[in-house]
């Protein structure tokens, strides 16, 4: 089968960009992805665009501004997994021979809502009862502290690490370190989660260019091969759900490792969905970075930061880099591409060869999450 | 122009990777001089493609070489409609696509009696408000 390889990437610094439209956010990222790939707009054979709140024809509104047209443009919403789903579709288009060069865009503008929690689907019964994303993660956190005999300090340590990583990332929304005391003393959002344990409201855009492995070899450029691209939906239940064992991520990761032929022990870096502090701990276990029950120790031992076993969220993750929902899955791929091609600058992970990116998309009742996308990437040169 | 290859891409949030502040209302859409109304647009210096409103990137090639250019006052009415139901503004009003000889098409409010396809129109303005009027 033809293999898909990322050969170009770009993203804007995430932040509150109220003066920019969706194209205003995304066009600079797309131009950078194209120039870093060494391709022109006319070389692109298909476009996929992930977003949750861009409105009609978001992808076309972006690419028409730089001369891409007459090719398939698919807009995809999968909540926070929209950008990664767009990457998944593009990789399939390459693998199945429908195109030889695909552009993937992730973009969202959350400042349009004026702040506060993410607007969820109002026809959902749990949303009608008051469910907001921090509430769901807060209940995971409460259960985690209860079952594991931990205190909120372990949650705060996730933010401390994320913010420390973000300091070295010029594309991160937050670039100042925080202490555990500051995290715990920040205002309560959904107990036990405090403000500094929640990803910020922000705007962002990211883009990557994929080509077939054969084309990459002809071009003679380095890249990040898509070793696995797995998209799962959640399975609803009206009964008991183990909130520390997110089945959608567990199954997705298992499929991804099987497809790639390597497992979690081989990973040099992970960009995972740390929308709230508790998520990182839960996903250490779900992604197999440690056995069940050992996530707190993994974090405390420094195994998931520079110098450890696997660097988790070198970008600062959603907590520090920011989380404009539809943009995040593509922004993770951009970060991985930079590390795998030695372009990450001050935060470069030494001789990084393999990366995992993971985003979920939630907010509907009965499910752990509605969508989960996992990519395994491998350096090729 | 920055030499972006000199520094690692992931290290460099230079000016060319910042979002465009395209929703900022920075400057007028029209220029009025000696009673002559012109639209303030832009043209790519490499491809020659014209655009209104002005924009930072060529819509055909992606080149960042758009230079300001004024269009008008004369144009040709390509087609038009008088609108009686609208979600965006008070009715009735007439809209039309007007073609400038410099290779630019613009959607404009159109005023005048007996509008017809291919008739000549001229830009008019009252303060910031501008429209195309059937030429006498």
Sequence-ordered SSE layout with sheet pairings:
The complex is a heterodimer of chains A (381) and B (136).
Chain A lengths: L3 E8 L10 H16 L8 E5 L7 H6 L9 E4 L5 H14 L5 E9 L15 H4 L4 H16 L3 H15 L13 H6 L2 E3 L2 E2 L8 E10 H7 L3 E11 L13 H14 L8 E3 L5 H10 L8 H6 L10 E2 L4 H5 L3 H16 L13 E8 L9 E10 L1
Parallel strand pairs in A: 2-3, 2-4, 9-10, 9-11
Antiparallel strand pairs in A: 1-7, 1-8, 4-7, 5-6, 8-12, 11-12
Helix pairs in contact in A: 3-13, 5-10, 6-10
Chain B lengths: L29 E4 L2 E9 L5 E2 L14 E6 L2 E10 L9 E8 L3 E8 L8 E7 L2 E6 L2
Parallel strand pairs in B: 7-9
Antiparallel strand pairs in B: 1-2, 2-3, 2-4, 5-6, 5-8, 6-7, 8-9
Account of the 3D structure:
The complex is a heterodimer of chains A (381) and B (136). Chain A is of the alpha/beta class. Chain A starts with a strand and ends with a strand. Chain A has 2 domains: 4-113 and 202-224, Peroxisomal Thiolase, Chain A, domain 1, CATH 3.40.47; 125-200 and 228-380, Peroxisomal Thiolase, Chain A, domain 1, CATH 3.40.47. Chain A has helices at 22-37, 58-63, 82-95, 125-128, 133-148, 152-166, 180-185, 213-219, 247-260, 277-286, 295-300, 317-321, 325-340, and strands at residues 4-11, 46-50, 73-76, 101-109, 188-190, 193-194, 203-212, 223-233, 269-271, 311-312, 354-361, 371-380. The mean pLDDT of chain A is 97. Chain B is mostly beta strands and 136 residues long. Chain B has one domain (27-134). In chain B, the strands form 2 sheets. A 5-stranded mixed beta barrel of chain B has the order 5-6-7-9-8. In chain B, strands 1, 2, 3 and 4 form a 4-stranded antiparallel sheet that branches. In chain B, a hairpin with a 3-residue loop joins strand 6 and strand 7 (104-111). At the A-B interface, strand 1, helix 1 and helix 13 of A face loops of B.
Concise synopsis of the structure shown:
The complex is a heterodimer of chains A (381) and B (136). Chain A is α/β, with parallel strands linked by helices and 381 residues long.
């Amino acid at each position: 089968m033809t293999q898909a390889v990322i050969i170009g990437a770009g993203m804007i610094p995430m932040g509150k960009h109220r003066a920019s439209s969706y194209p205003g956010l995304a066009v600079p990222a797309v131009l950078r992805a194209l120039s870093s790939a060494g391709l022109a707009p006319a070389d692109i054979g298909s476009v996929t665009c992930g977003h949750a709140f861009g409105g009609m024809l978001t992808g076309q509104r972006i690419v028409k501004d730089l001369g891409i047209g007459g090719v398939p443009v698919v807009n995809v919403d999968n909540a926070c997994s929209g950008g990664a789903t767009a990457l998944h579709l593009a990789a399939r288009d390459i693998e199945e021979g429908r195109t030889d060069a695909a552009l993937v865009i992730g973009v969202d503008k959350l400042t349009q809502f004026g702040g506060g929690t993410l607007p969820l689907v109002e026809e959902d019964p749990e949303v009608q009862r008051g469910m907001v994303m921090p509430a769901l993660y807060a209940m995971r956190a409460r259960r985690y502290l209860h079952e594991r005999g931990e205190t909120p300090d372990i949650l705060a340590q996730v933010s401390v690490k994320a913010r420390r990583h973000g300091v070295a990332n010029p594309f991160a929304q937050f670039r100042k370190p925080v202490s555990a005391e500051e995290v715990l003393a920040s205002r309560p959002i959904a107990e036990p989660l405090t403000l500094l344990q929640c990803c910020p409201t922000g705007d962002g855009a990211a883009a990557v260019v994929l080509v077939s492995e054969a084309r990459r070899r002809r071009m003679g450029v380095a890249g990040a091969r898509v070793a696995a691209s797995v998209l799962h939906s959640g399975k609803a239940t009206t009964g008991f759900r183990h909130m520390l064992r997110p089945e959608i991520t567990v199954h997705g990761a298992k499929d991804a490792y099987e497809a790639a032929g390597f497992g979690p022990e081989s990973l040099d870096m992970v960009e995972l969905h740390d929308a709230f502090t508790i998520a990182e701990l839960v996903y250490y276990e779900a992604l197999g970075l440690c056995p069940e029950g050992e996530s707190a120790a993994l974090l405390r031992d420094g195994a998931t930061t520079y110098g450890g076993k696997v660097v988790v969220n070198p970008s600062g993750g959603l907590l520090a880099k920011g989380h404009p929902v539809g943009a995040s899955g593509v922004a993770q791929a951009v970060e991985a591409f930079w590390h795998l091609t030695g372009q990450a600058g001050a935060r470069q992970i030494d001789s990084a060869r393999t990366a995992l990116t993971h985003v979920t998309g939630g907010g509907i009742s009965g499910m752990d999450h509605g969508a989960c996308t996992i990519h395994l990437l491998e350096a090729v040169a | 122009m920055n030499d972006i290859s000199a520094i690692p891409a992931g290290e460099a949030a230079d000016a060319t990777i910042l979002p465009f502040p395209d929703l900022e209302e920075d400057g007028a859409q029209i220029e009025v001089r000696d009673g002559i109304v012109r639209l303030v647009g832009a043209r790519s210096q490499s491809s020659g493609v014209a655009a209104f409103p002005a924009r930072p990137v060529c819509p055909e090639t992606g080149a960042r070489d758009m230079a300001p250019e004024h269009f008008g006052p004369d144009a040709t009415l390509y087609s038009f409609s008088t609108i009686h139901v609208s979600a965006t503004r008070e009715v009735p009003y007439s809209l039309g696509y007007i073609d400038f000889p410099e290779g630019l098409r613009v959607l404009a409010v159109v005023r005048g009696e007996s509008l017809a396809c291919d008739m000549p129109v001229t830009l008019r303005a009252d303060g910031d408000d501008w429209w195309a009027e059937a030429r006498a």
